[in-house]
Amino acid sequence: MGKKMSSPSLTESQFIRICRLINDSLHPFTVSENLSFSKQEEKNLLLILSQIPLLNLESLYIQHLAGNVLVTFSEFLASSVKTWEFFIHSLSICLELSISNISSCSFEPSITGAGGSGSDLLNLVGLFKPKLKNTSLFTVAGIIRTLRNILKFLKEECDDELVLVLLNSISFFISNVPWDSMDEIFGGNGGEDDERNALFLGNFIQLLSSFVDQISFAEGLDNSLDKNVILSKIINLVPKLLYWSLRKEGKCVNTCISRYFSHKLLVLMIRLSLQIPLDFLVLVSWLQLLHSYFEDLLYQPLTDVMNQDDYLEDSPFMLSNFDGEVHSMHSRHLQRQAIFLFLRCSFSLINLGKATRKHYSSATVKSSIDVDAISEQSCGREKGLLEIYAWLSGHVVVDKLVAHEMYREKSINFSFSLLKLYTHEDDILFKFLLELLSLQACKEQKFHKERLAPQDEMEDVLFHVSYIFNPIRLFHLFLAELHYDHQVLLDYLISKDTGISCAEYLLRCLRIVCDSWQTFMEFSVYGKLSNQLSSKRRKILSESSNFKIEPSSGPVKTIPLSLEKKFNGNLEYRHMKQMYELAKGCLLSLKKSVENLHLKNLFPYNPEVLLKRLERFQELCFKH
């Protein structure tokens, strides 16, 4: 584990001076029996509190407590929007002045659109400028951490008006800072500079991630701000943040910090991709960045993490004294995020279809990709398919000479392993499943049992991508991973975190199933896959099935599927029948449970559309 950041100790005289400064500044407000302030007294206290905690002392402990003081004080001021707004803009001015003093390009802090009196804010700039001339990156990191914690507090309080004030302030900060001037700071001189850089980057990336998460719900941003423009600014920062944090070689201060940065950056990129449509150039650029910084995660065998227990240490935030093995032992979170972002970028390219490259103004997303260097074959749909095909080739044998039965078994095993990577992470599970459904090439594709010889390379690519990501197959495997327990699906549907996305996934899958009923009935799995079913979900069977599972803490004893590589037609038919009956029982039991809750007005939202889709499913079950 890397060494801790050095924190210069205070001399006795410095300590006495700080205490005296705080006492002299705050004493008049603490001894007064009158708890109400005049406007001028209130403004004086705000100015004092915005200066005192942000002293340029490189002590993590002092800065941590000082930040907590500011967060607590912001909570106290929350009852008065105007006062709170003045306080927030004071912090933002301090932040921008501090960055201006340490960067190679000085700039004036933004006060346009900041609200309140412009003259008051200009006076703040004049007041703070001399006091912050000796600030360091350490101080900047402390202010950013404070703003992020205030944003976190407001999210819990659900105060939309105050959130909007803070989002406006952060937006102006992001737009105003000349980020290119920060390249020299993060050049990587080593030693304590690296540690200060890591502290700043960690807090800054966290702030951006929280900001992107919150801005999606923001309505009524300042008239001079455009939500998409601000998000595009952050998108343009992504390559810099990756380089500043992980360096070109993927090296960082130490392994734990590198993993932490990787996790936070992937979260930021995923949130950005969900907030704003990414254009062709950005998608291609991000795929290149994923290959440059996360190639090992993309091609790490999925089976390496399938049998690991979900210990607390699996968190990317864990700091450990173990050797480099920690990185490979606990990379499940990072692999899950990297693969999701890779698939999202690739599928987005595929779904662009024949869209031509768009020319963006300086106010929108830009990319450093050389457009002329991108071949026509790599544009849009072809580029996305080739990316997916190359990735699949690293995990599954896609040689056209491989026997059909062996190819089928390996591809199903891969699909199940990929699905299993996400099934215990509810926050991303249905985003992942819906992402797979977005692949147009997968929908309603029908293939003969014996593989046809492709006419060209692109047809070969399309075959593999469509075969492995077939939505009916993935839906069957998803239900199997849940042990066909309709109660698990019901839990997902009524959860405030997964309810809407789970309902959307079920609606879309049921439509595909009902339109391709024969394919749904005939699906089956063979071989070792039957032993990979998770033992961590509820181990009961749906009400309509005769198969029973006794509660157990050990591995689940599922319906025995043949481990033989050769099987006769009758056994194949029985496997098909078993999987169909289990899936049918699960979904019909789900229908019954949703109906019962809906009749009692206990379902959290109107499930009538879902019930109609399940009704159609039931009709097909009875018909066949």
TrEMBL record:
Domain Protein Lines N-terminal stretches: 409-522
Coiled coil regions in record: none
InterPro entries cross-referenced by the UniProt entry: Lines_C, LINES_N, Protein_Lines
Pfam families assigned to the protein according to its UniProt record, in alphabetical order: LINES_C, LINES_N
Domain Protein Lines C-terminal: 584-619
Protein name per Swiss-Prot or TrEMBL: Protein Lines C-terminal domain-containing protein
